[in-house]
Amino acid sequence: MHESETIPDPWLTLGGMAAYVKRSKSFISREIRAGNLRAVSPGTGTVRRRWLARRSWVDAWLESSSPRGEEMTERLRKNIGN
Question: What is the pTM of this model?
Fold first, then answer.
């Protein structure tokens, strides 16, 4: 596979994750804090956490959290053009 043919795996903010899966930011935040959804909080010493996750991590969470997860992931990718 050539580099130009690879599927992009962008970083998503908390709001980006919520918009991607059509859920609230508070729901996504709870899933992250519960350890169900992989995410990172860059930097140290910040009062307010800023969560970032790769889109592939969100896809993996969707696929593992629902019997129809793979179908949902495929639909989301088609809606955003990837």
Answer: 0.70
pLDDT per residue as tens digits for the range 41-77: 987 665 567 899 999 999 999 988 876 656 666 776 6
Let me know if residue 5 belongs to a domain: no
**Greatest distance between any 2 Cα atoms in the chain:** 43
* Cα dist from 77 to 39, 40, 70, 72, whole Å: 20, 22, 11, 9
Of 24, 28, 12, 32, the closest CA to residue 82 belongs to 12
The first and second tokens of residue 41, run together, are: 């909080």
Residue 7: inside a domain, yes or no? no
Domain assignment of residue 67, yes or no: yes
Within a domain: 1: no
Q: Which domain holds residue 46?
A: 15-80
